[in-house]
Amino acid sequence: MPNQENTARLLPDVAVHAQPHLAGALDWVGMADIQVPVLFDAGDGQVQRSSARVGAFVNLSRPDKRGIHMSRLYLQVEQALSTQTLDASMLHALLRGFLDSHKDLSDRACLSIQFEHLVRRPALKSANSGWRAYPVCIEASLTSDEFLLEFGTEVVYSSTCPASAALSRQLIQDQFASDFDAGQPLGHAAVLAWLGSERGIVATPHAQRSVARLRIRLVPGADFHLIGLIDRVEHALGTPVQTAVKREDEQAFALANGGNLMFCEDAARRIQKALDADAALGDFHVRVEHQESLHPHDAVAYASKGVEGGYGSTP
Ligand SMILES: Nc1nc2c(ncn2[C@@H]2O[C@H](COP(=O)(O)OP(=O)(O)OP(=O)(O)O)[C@@H](O)[C@H]2O)c(=O)[nH]1
């Protein structure tokens, strides 16, 4: 039976007192997939609580020390993330706390936080609305006094192939030429009826669900404005996926697709243009993926801000 004396005895701490079997400095040690709630203001002034997965790491610069203090990292993550709204200064302070609790062991700390942020989106035409869950990945690191803050998200949209649209138009012209004799006068009602029939659209261009994966490096002092950023990207593309859709919304979406024919290169350039003007973005990286319905493979384009030594210089 445990007694007072047993429970109060000194517990061995092999991480600190035992020598490692093999000596060596380690790049990163810590915990992945810590389960914790986070509070996030995506820039609309409303703080949302989400379930997150967190990675918390420090380096182990001392080859002769067995291990780091995992519980110290865990407790700081738990305390900070479940009580404070995520922002640049609290993440900086949290990483500083990692290093302060690992004096003599570590001089680098990093943190990754993954969760989904729900946003209510209105339908294109009808009075309905529905939810979009945008994935968010925040990564922060502290090395000496250099604090780096990055975040990533994804925008899903529809892309209609401009080449396929041109080829379809040609077939529609061919059908028109075959159905209407060039020598005969054209009747308005007959043409209108033809346009409303399936013969008036004998070929349709292929379209695909497409994904833009965004990675953003913030300039020092800048904070997340997730919704503003996503809104700009969706507006630049013109065809973000819809939630609640009645027929009037579907028709508006068809019109938006017809007005925004896009190769993956076009989509990447549109996003590049939309982000280039934002001074809060030290760098950005975009991977555009058109999940082709013509091919079994995807069409992919990458774009970045093009800063010296930035994302663009790595494959
Ligand atoms: N360093 C390390 N700890 C691990 C690992 N896996 C589990 N742990 C456990 O994490 C537990 C808590 O770690 P510590 O932070 O050292 O706990 P503690 O010694 O009670 O706390 P401090 O006195 O603040 O150091 C330890 O009992 C370890 O067994 C591992 O791979 N490495």
From TrEMBL:
Keyword field contains RNA-binding: no
Pfam family, one: GCHY-1
Name of the encoding gene: folE2
EC number(s) from the headed UniProt entry: 3.5.4.16
Residues at the site labelled May be catalytically important: 161
Keyword Hydrolase: yes
UniProt entry keywords in alphabetical sequence: Hydrolase
Organism domain of life: Bacteria
Species per Swiss-Prot/TrEMBL record: Rhodanobacter thiooxydans
Record-given protein name: GTP cyclohydrolase FolE2
Any single GO BP term: tetrahydrofolate biosynthetic process
Name of the top EC class for this enzyme: hydrolase
Recorded catalytic activity of this chain's protein: GTP + H2O = 7,8-dihydroneopterin 3'-triphosphate + formate + H(+)
Role according to the record: Converts GTP to 7,8-dihydroneopterin triphosphate.
InterPro entries cross-referenced by the UniProt entry: GTP_cyclohydrolase_FolE2 (IPR022838), GTP_cyclohydrolase_FolE2/MptA (IPR003801)
